[in-house]
Amino acid sequence: MHPVTIEPDWTITTPHDTAAERVAAAFGSWNSCMQLDKSLAAALRGMEFTMRTAKYPVRRHPAQSGRWLVDRSSVMFGSALAAAMYVRSSAEWLAGLTGGLHWQTRDLQTRLIAEFGVHAAVPERYDDMREHVTEPDGLNLLWDNGIHPKRVRRIARRIELGSERLAARDFVLLAYSGIPGRDISRVARKSGDLATTLTVIRDQAVHRYLNSADPEHH
User: Fold this and answer.
1) Which end of the chain is more exposed for a tag (fewer CB within 10 A), N or C?
2) Residue 86: phi, psi to the nearest 5?
3) What is the pLDDT of residues 38-66, one digit of tens each?
4) How far apart are CA 45 and CA 54, in angstroms?
């Protein structure tokens, strides 16, 4: 083990000759430092999830109610919250996205969080987004579920929420339904009714509903 320096441009400096190591690697040699760039990319991706600036690859299980999945993982989760926590904290999963080493990724994640924070709470500048969520702490619940306030606003516009409020669990449903946003908007326009829109999305019946002559969901 030795110290490494993360430069302002997100490159990594080590106390030895990485160019020479790459030449050696071409002849079959291996050094874990050769994976640092990939591990840093994984840790930076994790930081994007921590800051909620990247869309979480979480989705409802298509066949098992109450089960949630994460892309490129075989693990099933009992809640979207558990899946979201896995996305931002699993060094093994993050490293798998870039081909990095999980232990390097974990160490680099720790360093980045020490520098930039854990982002455990919704930034105050988004307090006006709270008006869209029924629960007083609803925006915080959505943040814990990996949903940025900007996405809350997009969903509210997509379903034409207007002055109504929506429960946090319904925002989670819409965010992680796996249904394209344009189709959700089409359902909302056709139904003109929030409860119907949510039922169609929950039942994964979008195409059947949009292709039906009767706007009432069956």
Assistant:
1) N
2) -65, -45
3) 999 999 999 999 999 999 999 999 889 89
4) 8
Handedness of CA 180, 166, 53, 73 (dihedral sign): negative
Maximum Cα interatomic distance, the chain, rounded to a whole number of Å: 70
Tokens standing for 169? Answer: 């669990």
Measuring CA to CA, which residue among 49, 71, 48 is closest to residue 59?
71
CA 20 – CA 11 distance, rounded (Å): 17
Domains in the chain: boundaries: 5-116, 124-210
**C-alpha span between 4 and 21 (Å, rounded):** 16
Identify the three-state secondary structure at position 92: helix
Mean pLDDT of 129-158: 98
pLDDT range class, residue 19, cuts 50, 70, 90: low
